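Fill in residues.
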């Protein structure tokens, strides 16, 4: 049989495994030409067929060209209607599309962003890492429930949804879903093993690497710049002051007023080190054993510091989520003078045109104004003192704001920023 076309790709891509698996089950031969990324995809010949220069890229034997993994896989599956890869009814097809979209938007994207941050492809954010990992786990638990009574996602045989799911899950268990997470995903792991060990697919998927502990961020080592050679200092003789040069010093006869100390500097020394807390929050998981919350409760000084809920007063003015998030960033920038007295975790909850800004501050002393009045817009926010040791509702709000999974009046955490 002549090849159905050529696939320009990188073997380790999940999309490559998906497309090759579809061809294997559909009975198509697929040509995989030699391809060098960041080189071949920038040639005029390649760009003439695929203007965006992106892979995977499919060049059909009939001259039909297509990019993006899922559309290519779906197109090829559609050319083999007897394969059952797209189901046997409109309802099956819709459910298959549902699961494909679910895995792309609720599982794969989270792994891609986390992996990109861990590899320093873009700046690492502990808050985003935690948020995505928790969102992904929620999705995996939904999948686990679905698979508790099923062998395959849709119907009684392998479909495109199963192929894409296995391709995505094989990467998930090597990055985020460690042994502790997989203990909650017995049916999901069984499903993954079932798909990747199908006789026609085993060589395509290859061995599955299960991580014992989810991959963690390791900051890149900073190279120390060589110290510049020190130039010998010239000794300068101090000029002798004449006894009668009073007229030259007239400008210094009036002493400067001493700078007023921040009242927070006058507080008794605290056993709670705010910088240590910021490091614990940045480097530990928020929840769970040995997490940053556990560290906080073990070290917090209720006399020297206090915890406050902060709420924006004019939520009706908020529109797009990203704009509200930028507003939080601006507020934090204006709090710069209080950085050594203050820690914050504030987010946007809800969706576009129906959101609020809320979160928590940990600050020095028992008066919020002393720490926040350096920001000209501090009065645009309402501050409510929280009792995280004696009030369960206050504690739940505090922990949700730190873990970025806070929910207020049905509005879920959409985006946030930390001040540390």
């Amino acid at each position: 049989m002549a090849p159905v076309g050529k696939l320009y790709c990188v073997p380790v891509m999940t999309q490559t495994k998906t497309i090759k698996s579809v061809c294997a089950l559909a009975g198509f031969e697929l040509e995989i030409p030699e391809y060098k990324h960041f080189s071949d995809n920038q040639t005029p010949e390649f760009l003439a067929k695929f203007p965006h220069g992106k892979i995977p890229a499919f060049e059909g034997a009939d001259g039909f060209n297509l990019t993006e993994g899922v559309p290519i896989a779906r197109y090829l599956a559609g050319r083999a209607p007897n394969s059952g890869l797209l189901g046997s009814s409109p309802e099956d097809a819709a459910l298959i599309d549902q699961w494909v979209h679910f895995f792309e938007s609720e599982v794969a994207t989270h792994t891609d962003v986390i992996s990109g941050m861990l590899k320093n492809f873009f700046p690492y954010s502990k808050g985003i890492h935690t948020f995505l990992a928790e969102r992904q786990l929620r999705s995996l638990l939904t999948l686990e429930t679905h698979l508790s009574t099923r062998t395959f996602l849709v119907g009684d045989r392998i479909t495109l949804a199963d192929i894409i799911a296995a391709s995505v899950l094989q990467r998930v268990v090597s990055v985020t879903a460690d042994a502790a997470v997989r203990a909650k995903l017995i049916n999901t792991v069984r499903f993954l093993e079932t798909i990747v060990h199908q006789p026609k697919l085993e060589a395509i998927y290859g061995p599955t690497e299960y991580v014992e502990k989810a991959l963690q961020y390791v900051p890149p080592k900073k190279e120390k710049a060589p110290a510049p050679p020190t130039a010998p200092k010239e000794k300068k003789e101090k000029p002798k002051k004449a006894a009668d040069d009073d007229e030259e010093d007239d400008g210094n006869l009036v002493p400067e007023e001493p700078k007023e100390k921040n009242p927070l500097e006058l507080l008794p020394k605290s056993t709670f080190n705010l910088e240590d807390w910021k490091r614990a929050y940045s480097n530990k998981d928020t929840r769970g054993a040995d997490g940053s919350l556990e560290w906080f409760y073990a070290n917090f000084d209720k006399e020297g510091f206090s915890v406050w809920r902060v709420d924006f007063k004019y939520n009706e003015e908020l529109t797009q989520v990203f704009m509200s998030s930028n507003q939080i960033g601006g507020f934090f920038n204006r709090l710069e003078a209080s950085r050594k007295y203050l820690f914050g975790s504030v987010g946007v909850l809800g969706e576009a045109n129906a959101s609020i800004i809320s979160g928590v501050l940990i600050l020095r002393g028992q008066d919020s104004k002393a720490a926040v009045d350096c920001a000209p817009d501090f009065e645009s926010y309402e501050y409510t003192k929280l009792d995280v040791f004696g009030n369960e509702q206050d504690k739940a709000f505090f922990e949700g704001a730190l873990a970025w999974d806070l929910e207020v009046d049905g509005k879920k955490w959409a985006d946030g920023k930390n001040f540390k």
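The two ends are 63 Å apart (CA to CA).
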